[in-house]
Specification:
The complex is a heterodimer. Chain A has helices at about 20-35, 40-45, 50-85, 95-100, 105-135, 135-150, 160-165, 170-195, and strands spanning about 1-5, 10. Chain A is mostly helical. Chain B has helices at about 10-20, 25-40. Chain B has two helices and no strands. Chain B is mostly helical. Classes of the chains: A mainly alpha, B mainly alpha. Chains A and B meet through helix 1 and helix 3 of A and helix 1 and helix 2 of B. Chain A: Keywords: Membrane, Transmembrane, Transmembrane helix.
Amino acid sequence: MSAGFDIFEVKINYYSASSVFVLTMLWGFITAFLLTTKGYRYADFMFVTNRLTSHLANGLFLLTMSFLGSLTASLSPFLIRVIIFIYQDEGHITEDFLMSAQAHEFIIGFATAFLYLLVFSVLGYLFGMLIQFNKALQVIIPVVFLGGLMINSGEQGMIISIINFFMMESSFVLFTLKMIVSILVIYLSTILLTNKMEVIR
Amino acid sequence: MSLAKINMDDTIKKLYLFKLNSYSGVFTTLIFLQIISIISI
């Protein structure tokens, strides 16, 4: 954005790390989904294991994955500032702003990214496990989701309401509670749904 | 090792460490993805 007068010109550039967060969420979903595919599941049989231990080890892996993913994503704005500081002309970013960040802001940003990434990961895990039940679900679930977005669209739509329920929460404590409860519900349902699944499936 | 000596905590720990070692490639993918998205800004 730029505005000019006779004697001076103001140009504002916006840089955002949103794309880093979006790609990280996508990565979390796909990686969790991949954990449920045959190759990865059969690798567990090298150990004396059952469904529950597999699920719990996968849960720990998802937690680690989300922690590292959200940490790097939360630090990415600083990298962006450094890159712009080095490669752009002088004046884009002042030295004071380069590394300025309030500790509590960073912690809240990191915690939020962690919870979002964990939700996407457990959703990917649930989706992957459901597909192991019935291959038709790999078509049905996206169709129901996309169909729900299109048919029941607008602010009153069911899927939009669910998204708003999480994203429009202004209180951080309530947001954290909502996220933790959702993560536990999704993860426990995955364990309960697939606990009795045949070993080689 | 006898099957009687196996406990759940050990199994989960071994499985988890196995997954961390074997699937470390996903973390490399993450770093690549984030670098690509930063460069594209």
